[in-house]
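FW: tagging you since you asked about this chain on Friday. Here's the raw sequence from the shared folder, copied in full. Didn't touch anything.
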Amino acid sequence: MSQEIPVDVLILGGGIQGATLMRALIPEYSVILVDDEFGDAESLHFHGYFSSGWNAANPQAAEIHRAAAQRWHKELATSGVNSRITDFHAALTPDFLKMVEGNWAEAAIPSEEVELPGIFDPDGLPPNRRFRFPGDLIFDGAAAYLSVSEPLRQQIYRGRLASFQLAGSDIERVILDMDGRSCAVKPELVISACGAGNAEVIRQLGVAEEQVQNSQMVRPLHMLLARGPDIPKVSAYLIDLMVMHHPLEEGEGLWILTLNPDVPKFKAGVVDRCIPPEIENDLLCASFKRLASVMPSFAAWAEECQWSVYAGWKTDAPGPNSDPLVHLEYPTPYQLDDFGLKNFLAVWPNHWGLALDVADDAGEWVRSKLKPHHPQPGSNSGLPAGTGSGHTIENGWQSDELLWHSWGEFARQVGYHNE
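HL: got it, structure written out here
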């Protein structure tokens, strides 16, 4: 093992949360970021849509989402990343409206009760009211991730946490496995921004199992993909089906369809995010049934598209509540917790749109505890070379590894029968 490497802040997790936090700290502090799958972060499973807050569980969360959408739009416009504030249409049930409608006025979220775009027939849906929200954000997640992480790449290292060594309630030493090479780091502060990996980090700290279970909730995310020249340039939420439009090259468009099932299959505690969830054909068929119920031309339109599916893990709100997506027991849509340790902070969920806000809050925590102490580790520190540039950074749903099928072939594969 090489010598012990001192650093002000060690960040575990190289998704958008870790990258934005590193960017916020590195002008003042020495910071290194470690991730075992850089370029395949949970953040790159993201569908590229961020609500302006109309679906938030309480007024404070709604205000945070609204401001975050505007903040990201300004940043991405400056960075030259493809993004747009867009009209988003939603058909919402009376029960859902009871939970969220009062938040809109308190959080200054603009909305208008209008009919859905003409391609949809709301009579095929359960009872609902229809709204248009003009402040939602759609963007290219991979390009945004690259714009944040690329300038920091020399301080981002490929590796994973092997173990912690504690001295009382302080983390004294961190052992990292960096492509088979063991490195010892002596950080002043440690921040875990690992998305679906947070529970594994917390477990290694000897935290009670109940806290580990409640510190991370993940669920499988299935993304149905339809591409072709006739994809409607419309994004909408249809009771439980999210429809997001992305432009592609050569005049094609892409629809990403994600269904929120009645009973999401949450998993608590440690999940190996490197093993994708099994694709559930029943969920895909339910997605098709919902779209067909509200899109009169669905059968003929589907024949003109190419179809695929992408599945990954999605980190959601933490806590023991049985419905953490809606009934939050805390006012903000993210949490920061030190689990009783003096120099450790875990942040979750690893939410794309909220990453800038979390970086602000976590940055204040760092500044309240630490003055710059160590120089940035250099080439003689004992660390291997940083990842540098040149990594392929792409959205999971744009991967060249995806298999595309005609409608007939895809429908047969998943067992869908048009009723």
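FW: The longest strand covers residues 181-192.
HL: agreed, and The two ends are 64 Å apart (CA to CA).
FW: great, closing this out.
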